[in-house]
Amino acid sequence: MKMSIRTPPRLLELAGRSLLRDQALAMSTLEELPTELFPPLFMEAFSRRRCEALKLMVQAWPFRRLPLRPLIKMPCLEAFQAVLDGLDALLTQGVCPRRWKLQVLDLQDVCENFWMVWSEAMARGSFLNAKRNKTPVQDCPRMRGQQPLTVFVELWLKNRTLDEYLTYLLLWVKQRKDLLHLCCKKLKILGMPFRNIRSILKMVNLDCIQEVEVNCKWVLPILTQFTPYLGHMRNLQKLVLSHMDVSRYVSPEQKKEIVTQFTTQFLKLHCLQKLYMNSVSFLEGHLDQLLSCLKTSLKVLTITNCVLLESDLKHLSQCPSISQLKTLDLSGIRLTNYSLVPLQILLEKVAATLEYLDLDDCGIIDSQVNAILPALSRCFELNAFSFCGNPISMATLENLLSHTIILKNLCVEVYPAPRESYGADGTLCWSRFAQIRAELMNRVRDLRHPKRIFFCIDNCPDCGNRSFYDLEADQYCC
Fold first, then answer.
1. How many structural domains comprise the chain?
2. What Gene3D superfamilies does this protein map onto (predicted)?
3. Could you tell me what percent of the chain has a pLDDT over 90?
4. pLDDT number for residue 121
5. Which of 50, 52, 91, 428 is the most buried (most CB within 10 A)?
């Protein structure tokens, strides 16, 4: 049966499947295959491990991109190898088949049913377009020339060894480094010897990396080895650092030198917008070094579960790169003995843009709250505010609510149950807690209708963990 782009989609699919059963499938046959048949037939050939058909189909691929990641979630290493073998034949030639347009082998995550949706959309779209235009567009021969094939991956380095697909791919790329660009937009390092990480980073085009997460309990000497690679990630937009520790064998002089080497890399990061630092012990007394090297206005800044000096907080309030923040998270930073005037100045700077503020578990007490209230009440774009884990009284909580109640965009608010809710032994007094909630609800309603207000208690009787109670209802979630 001669197939054309005017053949209805279902008949095309059936005819195409018959081709897969043909053991003598040739490139000349694929040259005549309607474009819309490639996605469904490729998907079937991959799932059925039709390796020879895969080799030919990838050499005639009529699209710029081949999104392979959803298919390799199936246990088909043999089929994956066949695709790479098919590409090998092209990479060693100067001229590619007439229809071949492939520029990007995409191994990034997409939705599970991507190929099914794409196949159906291609079949419907091509059939409808053909009914509007009787003259099909002809593909033109092209030379591959000097343009290397780009391979996109997401690197999630969490074990001592990589999975079999990534292991095979990296070996394949390493042997063809002059013919390929290995690109990665998202890099996660969650636990792997640095010598292995180094060998992988040497193969990656670091300019392509946009997001990096490092969460594997590094000490400063290991961070030093990573530092030069960070400086080459010139398009980095998001950086997450977690559990960075100072080795007890590192002297104060060495610490200062290492921190300087690390922070000066930020001078090269002209696209950085989101910076997350959790449990990073070397920030204490050195936050000014990092802040002074920021070259962009951050949208997100989270410094959590770190020890900061009062001088660090002052430097943060003076940093020009934080004036356009949308998210500020300082949860877990103990501020009990500090003046909150720097925090007040910081909130004043970001009042026009701030949308999310988290001050959980900062140890803020009654005498400190008044310092931040005027600035907080001017954060008119704020839509989420969390203040739980701070031991404040009923009077202070009422004062806090009277300032946040005027923020019309505020959708979610989380506050600690006031100290009066607890008995002398620290356990929650349920009757008193219920009474306080009722009183606060009445006062809040007098000013505006709240969207979602939660109270947080530290020791849930059911699970022993922190739990949250809706202000309006007897519902809670652990």
1. 2
2. Ribonuclease Inhibitor
3. 47
4. 61
5. 50
